[in-house]
Design a protein that fits this description.
The complex is a heterodimer of chains A (59) and B (87). Helix content of chain A is 12%, strand content 27%. Chain A is an alpha+beta fold and 59 residues long. The chains are: A alpha+beta (59), B alpha+beta (87). Chains A and B meet through loops of A and β3 of B.
Protein backbone atom coordinates (compact mmCIF):
# COMPACT_ATOMS: atom_id res chain seq x y z
CA UNK A 1 0.00 0.00 0.00
CA UNK A 2 2.87 2.34 0.77
CA UNK A 3 4.23 1.59 -2.71
CA UNK A 4 0.88 2.60 -4.22
CA UNK A 5 0.94 5.88 -2.30
CA UNK A 6 4.55 6.40 -3.33
CA UNK A 7 3.61 5.96 -7.00
CA UNK A 8 0.90 8.60 -6.63
CA UNK A 9 3.40 11.14 -5.32
CA UNK A 10 5.65 11.38 -8.36
CA UNK A 11 5.01 15.10 -8.85
CA UNK A 12 4.39 16.05 -5.24
CA UNK A 13 6.62 16.16 -2.21
CA UNK A 14 5.48 13.51 0.20
CA UNK A 15 6.62 11.58 3.22
CA UNK A 16 5.93 8.05 4.36
CA UNK A 17 5.89 6.83 7.94
CA UNK A 18 7.64 3.47 7.95
CA UNK A 19 7.80 0.59 10.36
CA UNK A 20 10.32 -2.23 10.58
CA UNK A 21 11.26 -4.94 13.04
CA UNK A 22 13.67 -3.24 15.45
CA UNK A 23 16.37 -4.43 17.77
CA UNK A 24 17.61 -1.52 19.82
CA UNK A 25 15.42 1.34 18.63
CA UNK A 26 18.22 3.90 18.99
CA UNK A 27 20.40 3.36 15.94
CA UNK A 28 23.08 1.07 17.30
CA UNK A 29 22.13 -2.35 15.88
CA UNK A 30 21.29 -1.69 12.19
CA UNK A 31 18.24 -3.99 12.26
CA UNK A 32 15.58 -1.56 11.01
CA UNK A 33 17.20 -0.25 7.82
CA UNK A 34 15.54 0.93 4.62
CA UNK A 35 17.18 1.67 1.28
CA UNK A 36 17.56 5.37 0.55
CA UNK A 37 18.21 6.52 -2.99
CA UNK A 38 20.46 9.52 -2.40
CA UNK A 39 22.54 7.68 0.15
CA UNK A 40 23.13 4.74 -2.20
CA UNK A 41 22.73 2.67 0.93
CA UNK A 42 20.63 2.33 4.03
CA UNK A 43 19.06 4.68 6.56
CA UNK A 44 17.78 3.54 9.95
CA UNK A 45 14.04 3.79 10.45
CA UNK A 46 14.43 4.23 14.21
CA UNK A 47 16.96 7.03 14.02
CA UNK A 48 16.70 8.70 10.59
CA UNK A 49 12.96 8.11 10.33
CA UNK A 50 10.38 6.81 10.93
CA UNK A 51 9.04 9.49 8.61
CA UNK A 52 11.09 9.57 5.43
CA UNK A 53 10.82 11.24 2.02
CA UNK A 54 8.60 9.21 -0.29
CA UNK A 55 10.82 9.99 -3.28
CA UNK A 56 13.90 8.62 -1.55
CA UNK A 57 12.87 5.34 0.04
CA UNK A 58 13.06 2.14 -1.98
CA UNK A 59 10.29 -0.11 -0.73
CA UNK B 1 37.31 -1.62 44.72
CA UNK B 2 39.79 -2.68 42.10
CA UNK B 3 38.10 -4.40 39.16
CA UNK B 4 41.05 -4.28 36.80
CA UNK B 5 41.54 -7.31 34.56
CA UNK B 6 43.90 -8.25 31.79
CA UNK B 7 42.59 -9.54 28.49
CA UNK B 8 45.51 -10.87 26.50
CA UNK B 9 47.78 -7.88 26.10
CA UNK B 10 45.08 -5.39 27.12
CA UNK B 11 44.71 -3.99 30.58
CA UNK B 12 41.08 -3.11 31.30
CA UNK B 13 40.04 -1.06 34.28
CA UNK B 14 36.99 -3.31 34.71
CA UNK B 15 35.57 -6.37 32.94
CA UNK B 16 32.44 -4.61 31.64
CA UNK B 17 32.29 -4.63 27.84
CA UNK B 18 29.03 -4.30 25.83
CA UNK B 19 28.45 -6.96 23.18
CA UNK B 20 29.54 -6.19 19.64
CA UNK B 21 26.66 -5.77 17.26
CA UNK B 22 24.45 -4.29 19.95
CA UNK B 23 26.56 -1.22 20.43
CA UNK B 24 27.15 0.29 16.99
CA UNK B 25 30.29 2.36 17.27
CA UNK B 26 29.40 3.85 20.65
CA UNK B 27 27.81 7.17 19.76
CA UNK B 28 24.18 6.18 20.35
CA UNK B 29 24.71 4.89 23.87
CA UNK B 30 26.88 7.81 24.91
CA UNK B 31 23.68 9.83 25.27
CA UNK B 32 22.62 7.57 28.15
CA UNK B 33 25.80 7.20 30.15
CA UNK B 34 29.47 8.07 30.14
CA UNK B 35 31.23 5.42 28.08
CA UNK B 36 34.43 6.02 30.03
CA UNK B 37 32.98 3.97 32.88
CA UNK B 38 33.25 0.84 30.72
CA UNK B 39 36.32 -1.37 30.66
CA UNK B 40 36.24 -1.52 26.89
CA UNK B 41 33.81 -1.29 23.99
CA UNK B 42 33.47 -3.76 21.16
CA UNK B 43 32.40 -2.02 17.96
CA UNK B 44 30.34 -3.64 15.21
CA UNK B 45 32.08 -6.16 12.98
CA UNK B 46 34.47 -4.51 10.56
CA UNK B 47 35.17 -6.01 7.17
CA UNK B 48 37.82 -4.98 4.66
CA UNK B 49 35.23 -3.72 2.16
CA UNK B 50 32.04 -1.90 3.14
CA UNK B 51 29.07 -4.24 3.36
CA UNK B 52 25.39 -3.46 2.88
CA UNK B 53 24.21 -6.36 5.00
CA UNK B 54 21.09 -8.46 4.53
CA UNK B 55 17.75 -7.28 3.19
CA UNK B 56 15.13 -6.60 5.85
CA UNK B 57 13.57 -7.96 8.00
CA UNK B 58 16.72 -8.63 9.93
CA UNK B 59 15.30 -9.62 13.29
CA UNK B 60 12.68 -12.18 14.29
CA UNK B 61 11.05 -12.81 17.62
CA UNK B 62 11.13 -16.32 19.08
CA UNK B 63 9.31 -17.76 22.08
CA UNK B 64 12.26 -17.18 24.37
CA UNK B 65 14.31 -14.51 22.68
CA UNK B 66 15.13 -13.23 19.25
CA UNK B 67 17.16 -14.05 16.18
CA UNK B 68 19.04 -11.46 14.21
CA UNK B 69 20.93 -11.55 10.94
CA UNK B 70 22.14 -8.06 10.23
CA UNK B 71 24.61 -9.38 7.68
CA UNK B 72 27.65 -7.50 8.90
CA UNK B 73 26.59 -4.11 7.59
CA UNK B 74 29.49 -1.76 8.18
CA UNK B 75 31.25 1.03 6.30
CA UNK B 76 34.42 -1.01 5.89
CA UNK B 77 37.65 -0.69 7.82
CA UNK B 78 38.69 2.54 6.11
CA UNK B 79 35.29 4.15 6.66
CA UNK B 80 35.38 3.14 10.31
CA UNK B 81 38.86 4.56 10.85
CA UNK B 82 37.91 7.80 9.15
CA UNK B 83 34.39 8.40 10.45
CA UNK B 84 33.75 6.35 13.57
CA UNK B 85 36.97 5.95 15.52
CA UNK B 86 37.49 9.67 16.23
CA UNK B 87 34.44 9.59 18.48
Amino acid sequence: MLKAVQNQLTHLEGYLSLEERMGCGIGACFACVCEYRSKKGYVKICQDGPVLKASEVLL
Amino acid sequence: MNLAVSLGELELKNPIMPASGCFGFGKEFSQFYDLNTLGAIAIKAATGEARYGNPTPRVAETSSGMLNAIGLQNPGVDGIIENELPF
